[in-house]
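Example (one chain per record):
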Amino acid sequence: MQIDEIAEYVWLYSKEIEFGEIEVWDENLFTSKWAKGKPIERAWKDAGAGWYWFLVNMNYDELHAVAKPSSLPDKGCNIGLLSHDNKEVFGASLLCANESGVTVIYNGHEANVTSRIRAHFALNNNSTGALGIKHYPLSSKKWIVRYFSSPCFTNISESDKSRIELLMNSYSGRCAVESAWRVKNGWPVLCKE
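Predicted structure:
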């Protein structure tokens, strides 16, 4: 498999979790307590290194109109400002397309992908940069997180699996696949680098 094929494979076979569409955020979202008893529990618990994407049913104008909440930690993402800045830099043609009313707003990779997803949701400190979704009054929106890690492999030869695992467990390998995905699909509007 070439790098672009790997990027497509991890996107197609990623686990998808819908959240939001509720009155207020669930503080336990993306924790072990939250996953307990759900069909995804095993895959969530066993996930290690991998890639992830956040999607929301908002367009770029709606994202730009989002005000920065006062509770957002220092390293949290200013959704309104960053979406405006990146739209100015990239233009609509280089950003991820809004497909079926849902926009990929962020993607990344991490050595512990589910822990990083939790950090992007909760962001309870000033020590790491993350989206800080729970600080925004956007719980009524439809959100989706997709992630790919070892439990997600399916329908693949052993040699291709080994190649992807090598990339997945390497910082530079994860960066390469993340970049290949962005080349094909566009720049997620809330990504800084």
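Caption: Strands lie at 15-20, 50-56, 98-99, 102-110, 142-148.
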